Amino acid sequence: MEKKCPRHSSCAAPPGLDAEEVHAFVAARVAPYTKVGRVEFLDQIPKLLAGKILREDRRLRESAM
């Protein structure tokens, strides 16, 4: 069985913010089993016209990596 880890996607990252800073910020505030496994910065989060996030698009991008 494949182990899944939480992932964080952000599209409004301030200049100079990197994934390590996000990991440290989250690790100081949550339980060890809820820490973020991977951080990705996007130009725009894909959404439907109704405003819902396109999770299928994220899954396809995940499998391509």
Offer a quick outline of the entry.
With 65 residues, the chain is an alpha+beta fold. It has helices at 19-27, 55-64; strands at residues 7-10, 38-41.
Give the arrangement of secondary structure elements.
Blueprint: E1 7-10, H1 19-27, E2 38-41, H2 55-64
Parallel strand pairs: 1-2
Fold and architecture overview:
With 65 residues, the chain is an alpha+beta fold. It has one domain (7-64): ANL, C-terminal domain (GMP Synthetase, Chain A, domain 3), CATH 3.30.300.30. The chain is built from 2 helices and 2 strands. The chain has a two-stranded parallel ribbon. β1, α1 (19-27) and β2 form a beta-alpha-beta unit. The mean pLDDT is 76.
What key attributes describe this structure?
two-stranded parallel ribbon, GMP Synthetase, Chain A, domain 3, globular, alpha+beta, 2 helices, 65 residues
Give the strand content. Answer: 5-15%
Number of helices: 2
| Secondary-structure element series | EHEH
The pLDDT mean sits at 76
Largest sheet: 2 strands, parallel
CATH fold-level name: GMP Synthetase, Chain A, domain 3
Helix content: 25-40%
Strands ordered across the widest β-sheet: 1-2
Given the C-alpha coordinates, what overall shape results?
Answer: globular
